[in-house]
Amino acid sequence: MFILTGSYSNRRSRLFWNAPKLVLGAMLLFAGGLTMEPVQASDTAKANVTTVGVSGSPDAYQFVVTVSSPDRGCKQYADWWEVLTEDGKLIYRRVLLHSHVDEQPFTRSGGPVMIGADTVVWVRAHMHPGGYGGKATKGTAKSGFKEAPLSADFARGLEKQPPLPTECAF
Question: Domain 41-150 class?
Answer without folding.
Answer: mainly beta
